[in-house]
Amino acid sequence: MTDAPLKLFNSLTRELETFTPVHPGEARVYTCGPTVYNYPHIGNMRAYVFADVLGRMLSHQGLKLTHIINITDVGHLTDDADEGEDKMEKMAAEKAQSIWDIAKHYTEAYWADVKALNIREPAKWSVATDYIDEMIEFAKGIADKHCYECETGLYFDTTTVEDYGRLARAVTEEGEGRIDTVEGKRNAADFAIWRKTPPGEKRQMEWDSPWGKGAPGWHLECSVMGEKLLGFPFDIHTGGIDHREIHHPNEIAQNQAFCGCGGLSEARNSGANIWMHNNFLVERSGKMSKSSGEFLRLQLLIDKGFHPLAYRMMCLQAHYRSELEFSWEVLEAALTRLKRMVMQAERLKDAEAQPQAEHPKFAGALAKFDEAMSDDLNTAIALTAMEDALATKKVDAGIKRAVIEYMDSVLGFGLFDLTREALRIRPKSASITEDEIEDALARRKAARAEKDFAASDAIRDELASKGVDVMDGDPLGWDWKLS
Ligand code: AMP
Ligand code: ZN
Q: I need a surface site. Which of 41, 140, 243, 283 has the fewest CB within 10 A?
């Protein structure tokens, strides 16, 4: 590794900052996790691929990483600004299932995507409903000075903390104008930290509290779990860029209240030294909306025949702060790029990595890699540095393998566990199995060896009729492709 200091873009200051751990030798990171009322779409997964790369980079700085990702199984309303219905209650009612079953099903589906994308497990998946007592205690601690009660719940008065909304840069009329007013709310931006169950109603999830039966507000959970599991201030808080507008400003206001601290010109008063946000994955035709019938889940990509790590590649080809547009063409190009890397890595499969050895031929690629990753996680450039290293010829295979293993462990593809066969496009809807294809290709090879070109062509046509393109002499060695 070079000594380039790790610079990260802090959304709170809107500046690149050198990362300095709060606790020497450690890195404590909190990532806002999924609301488990539905399957995550691939845009959601971009947020966790980003947090994963951040975590890997911090580990590679030699820091002891404690990463927390929460699971929101209560409190998130259909509108981030505390309006509408509870997403979990709504889905449970629609599906006529218990909330607990809904949460379990979608948490497991999310974990499957996490695994498929090589996202490392955090130190803890903290589940919101496991922290209700702590949330009530936290709310009790700030209620007197910072909250007021009205008919629908306990509200946080956003005028009681300094610099409210600085993260969003939007304490503007426009920002507040988006938020519907609730009867009894003092300021448009005020938000519920405890929502009372309306009289005569029964929620599936409700708890007793000093403010009556009800459920916590969504923002409260992240403040509480962050404080309990990492302590204020911790190092880095991450989430998607939408959270910069409402969820995180509200979390920050609660944290300031809890710590009894001042304004946000001191980043640590927000509860974390650095706030990082990934930009969105966008898709023009609206398939990313969970309400569209066939929305863009990772499983849809897999069903269409793509290896899930092609999506990881697609994410890493862009800087996390850039908007990324999804298309099947870009996904296929990302797959091909990954396949090229795997083919080059395959040549090193028998080599034993020699991590201590150095080779001048890799100095350039290593420096480029480390500088790119230290420059606010520029994975787009780091990928080209790994390609440079893979293309380096006439070097000791053990040294080359060590260099690639190092870069790969930061980018997280697991190149040496992948094979070119595993990356083949194989749609679920195919009318022919791989064994049948391989069998037909073996018969075709035998026919060609006997110069029986009529038989060979017939086999090729038969395969084509089932959607199999035979790719003789393909430089990428695909051999065949299902279309
Ligand atoms: P949610 O389950 O809605 O709370 O979202 C989970 C995570 O995905 C949050 O960090 C969101 O900010 C993030 N997110 C939501 N939509 C997108 C998107 N289209 N692209 C990238 N991240 C997103
Ligand atoms: Zn959160």
A: 140
Counting ligands in written order, the one closest to the CA of 326 is 1
What local confidence, expressed as pLDDT, does residue 414 receive?
98
Which ligand has the shortest distance to the CA of 247?
2
Residues 6+ away with beta carbon under 8 Å from 441: 459, 463, 470, 479, 480
Atom number, ligand 1, closest to the C-alpha of residue 243: 12
Q: What pLDDT sits at residue 288?
A: 77
Mean pLDDT of the chain: 92
Measured from the alpha carbon of residue 237, the closest ligand is 2
- In the chain, the domains with their CATH numbers are 7-278 (3.40.50.620), 290-421 (1.10.730.10), 427-482 (no CATH)
pTM of the predicted structure, to 2 decimals: 0.94
Residues with CB under 5 A from ligand 2 (ion): 32, 222
392 CA to centre of ligand 1 in angstroms: 38
Low-confidence ranges of the chain (pLDDT < 70): 1-3, 170-181, 291-293
* CA 71 to ligand 2 center in whole angstroms: 9
Phi, psi at 282, each rounded to 5°? -120, 155
Pocket of ligand 1 (CB under 6 A): 32, 34-35, 43-44, 46-47, 239-240, 242-243, 278, 280-281, 288
> What distance in angstroms lies between residue 222's CA and the mean position of ligand 2's atoms?
5
Mutate to test the pocket of ligand 1, among 242, 281, 295 (most ligand atoms within 8 A of CB): 242
What is the reported pLDDT for 173? 45
